[in-house]
Design goal:
Layout lengths: L1 E4 L18 H12 L6 E4 L10 H7 L2 H12 L2 E5 L2 E4 L2 H22 L3 E3 L21 H10 L7 E5 L6 H7 L5 E8 L18 E6 L5 H19 L3 E6 L18 H12 L3 E5 L5 H15 L2
Parallel strand pairs: 1-2, 1-5, 5-10, 6-7, 6-9, 7-8, 9-10
Antiparallel strand pairs: 3-4
Bound molecules: zinc ion.
Zinc ion (ZN) binds next to loops.
């Protein structure tokens, strides 16, 4: 069985009529997962309500009070924007807190079962920095989940692998100063947000950026995984691996120009599973509904092999 942590409440983060990061993304994935041959091997789980587990102590490890209060205030006023492409609707603050809890639930499940879990939540998180949301992201879900994992006695080191097509500037900004965390990103360059250079290695040599030119396909990714990503993660020996699982590196994705196919994410998942089965996959980007849904299916299917 593979836990899929999901709530219909994630659909309430309203980004407007024409925004690529839209509720239909999750609906398309849910629909696909309900009709796959291995549907009976999925264990759908609701995230822990914020009334049962307060996410604030974990949120505050990664974000400033000012940023958290700003998001809350904009939502309370009925909505607004954090930047040109990062809307906050009336429900967005509550939904974003529930999304953080879903990622924390993913950590709990994986540590309890020693098997992967998939967190099907939105908004995404890897662009959110300590003091600001940006790039569709309100709170830095992966970094917060990593902090939460480190509070568990059996967890000494956590690695975050980010295969979203965009560099996770927010995640790196947090991880690069933290000796118990590592961050590895494969991303298109040049591309939004313009960060993630290969010579940035982190204060503790705990960052690995692999910028890839537009037009790169699975061959370039395989080479990068085998020669850089897997050695980096093997040496680091994480007690938990968190995958910032964005699927906007698909050839059909409208926001970037990488040429992956949905089944390629099954291959990347296979690489990860060779390192450890303690993997929390959490959804980041991915904006072509069909490619997104197929890619999540490929990721989960590989975990069930
Ligand atoms: Zn992205």
């Amino acid at each position: 069985m593979l836990p899929v942590i999901y709530s219909d409440e994630f659909l309430l983060h309203d980004t407007g009529s024409f925004h690529p990061e839209r509720p239909q993304r999750l609906s398309a994935i849910v629909k696909a997962l309900k009709s796959v041959p291995f549907a009976d091997q999925l264990k759908w789980q609701l995230p822990t309500p914020v009334t049962e587990r307060d996410v604030m102590p974990w949120l505050q490890k990664v974000h400033s009070e000012e940023h958290i209060e700003r998001v809350e205030l904009i939502a309370k006023r009925g909505g607004g924007n954090l930047d040109g492409d990062t809307p906050v609707s009336a429900y967005s603050y509550d939904v974003a807190l529930l999304a953080v809890n879903a990622w924390l639930d993913g950590v709990d499940r994986v540590l309890a079962t020693e098997d992967p879990a998939f967190v099907l939540a939105r908004p995404p998180g890897h662009h959110a920095e300590r003091d600001r949301g940006m790039g569709f992201c309100l709170f830095s879900n992966a970094a917060i989940a990593a902090c939460y994992a480190l509070s568990q006695p059996e967890v000494k080191r956590v690695a975050i692998l980010d295969w979203d097509v965009h560099h996770g500037n927010g995640t790196q900004n947090f991880v690069e100063h933290h000796p118990k965390l590592a961050y590895c990103s494969l991303h298109q360059s040049p591309c939004y947000p313009g960060t993630g250079y290969a010579d940035e290695r982190g204060e503790y040599k705990n960052v690995l950026n692999i910028p890839l030119p537009p037009g790169s396909a699975v061959g370039e990714y395989q080479k990068a995984f085998e020669s850089e990503v897997l050695p980096f993660l093997s040496i680091y020996r994480p007690d938990l691996l968190i995958v910032s699982a964005g699927y906007d590196a698909n050839a059909d994705d409208p926001l970037a120009r990488i040429d992956l196919q949905p089944h390629d994410f099954g291959l990347f998942t296979e690489y990860c599973l060779k390192l450890t089965r303690r993997i929390v996959f959490g959804l980041e980007g991915g904006y072509d509904l069909a490619a997104l849904a197929e890619s999540v299916v490929a990721t989960i299917e590989q975990c069930l092999v």
